[in-house]
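=== RUN LOG ===
request id: a7f3
mode: sequence -> structure
chains: 1
length: 441
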Amino acid sequence: MADTFLSQIEAVLDPSDRSTPNVIVTGDAELPSCFAVTDLAVSTMRAAATQLAALTGARDVTVDRRLASLWFDMTLRPQGWVLPDAWDAIAGVYQTADGWIRLHTNAPHHREAALRVLDCAADKQAVGAAVSRWHRSQLEDAVVSEEGAAAAMYSMAEWAAHPQGQAVAKDPLIAWEEVAEGMSKVALQDLKVLDLTRVLAGPVATRFLAGYGARVLRIDPPWWNEPGVEPEVTLGKKRTGLDLTQPDDRQVFEGLLAQADVLVHGYRPGALTGLGYDPRRLRAISPHIIDVSLCAYGLRGPWAGRRGFDSLVQMSCGIAHEGMIRKKSAHPVSLPVQALDHATGYLLAAAVLRALRVRNQTGRILSARLSLARTAELLISEGARGFIGRDLTETANDLSETKEMTSWGSARRLRFPILIDGAEPKWQLPAGKLRMDAPAW
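=== RESULT ===
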């Protein structure tokens, strides 16, 4: 399956490219799943690495299969402190009157939306009792209508027949558009990346870029927090705060955008336009900007504007149902890691690097659009298999020797799976809390 994934990825990155470096995959691992999760990890990380090598002229790329599997999960190991829980107390899967649903309540407004619909106390037992009285699709629709985040569990066959599943199947893995021309050549170490993404795919992409020299500035609104993953995804980045509904902050944002080379954003389709920043306006502010974005449920179809996260998309597209059937479980069985997020993140990074190379060489300016649901389509494209693999036992050799002094305390991080001409990435900034830096490059 690795070759199948790789051929699909290469087909949308640059099928005519002749600058592919020598690639060696080392190590041995297989994460436990009825889907080829480790193959997906290796293939997408390899895609980002080969695009990086093509940009910089590197000759050799090495990808460690075991470390790639580990980097599709949390990579930071605190010393003398504890990572916050990644999940809200009532987030999770619940049985409905006719199936299963997952509630995603990590964000306070998503939690409040679910509780308004269920009209119950904020504890798992009360939520479970309330959910059991609903039909899965009706509850899904009700929570989404309240601007919450939820996903009923569907089988792969149900998703294939669903209007949104059919729309996603027609989307390319990476949707490219040539939007302008104009030479604006910049080296990777001078690249300015404006990061308007949240958990988890977009931050994975910009973390990768930061490790190889890009100057990444992440912007969050004053009310947003993601404590469970901040230590994981802020590595290498400056972090500032702006409220794009306020005139003064909009002026600051537009000044930053005018100086940026790349904009990576994870707003739902139409949300950035709703703030007054449609593609035409973005390009008027920054004519040479490389605009790369992602969403949850695809570029078109009735759910294109729906809020979503990796765990929800797994429920929608049949992954959790297939895992349940093949493991003979009484409950939905998700992937062992947030593989859709991580894989999409490395594909986003690959798209940025390819677009940068094209702009540097030809002056053509490309934009790219990706989605978690389309990455799920890649994963399930070869169908499911027997439930194989095992959890990986971490060893001391998996950890970097260098300590990282984060905002929360000292930590060590897993060694990165990729070597470019024998060299590891170098993140210049440790992980830190959101909105700690001035809004400046």
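=== NOTES ===
DSSP finds 17 helices and 16 strands in the chain.
The CA atoms of residues 298 and 371 lie 5 Å apart.
=== END ===
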